[in-house]
Write a sequence for this structure.
């Protein structure tokens, strides 16, 4: 097991690329630093995506998330940077990253960033009786 954070995201082949299905990953221990005060910011990251040919490998995702622990970052920037890195690595049909930051100064922040591939059309929702 790695003992160092790393920005490299590993992937593996999607076992069912012919099907649209949703992968949901909760990351409850995200930490970065406030760029103004240097104090730690804590968040739960919620990743949802429809893979195309590749899926993100979870151990590399854990080590990647760890790499932000000592970095100063505004909530909006770090959420979009993480989404961009994941999209670059996986090239998904669709990906949404929700970052729910813990309270700071009496204010909660939630940032939601999305990516949709140009060639992908989401399936129609089915409501069962």
């Amino acid at each position: 097991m790695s003992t160092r954070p790393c920005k490299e995201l590993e992937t593996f082949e999607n076992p069912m690329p012919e099907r649209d299905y949703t992968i949901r990953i909760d990351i409850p221990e995200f930490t970065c630093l406030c760029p103004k005060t240097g104090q730690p910011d804590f968040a739960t990251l919620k990743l949802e995506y429809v893979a195309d040919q590749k899926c993100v490998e979870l151990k590399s995702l854990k080590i990647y998330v760890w790499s932000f622990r000592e970095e100063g970052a505004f909530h909006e920037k770090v959420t979009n940077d993480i989404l961009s890195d994941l999209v670059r690595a996986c090239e998904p049909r669709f990906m949404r990253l929700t970052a729910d930051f813990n309270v700071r100064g009496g204010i909660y922040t939630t940032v939601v960033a999305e990516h949709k591939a140009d060639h992908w059309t989401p399936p129609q929702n089915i409501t069962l009786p």
About this structure: The chain is about 20% helix and 40% strand. Residues 75-90 form the longest helix (16 residues).
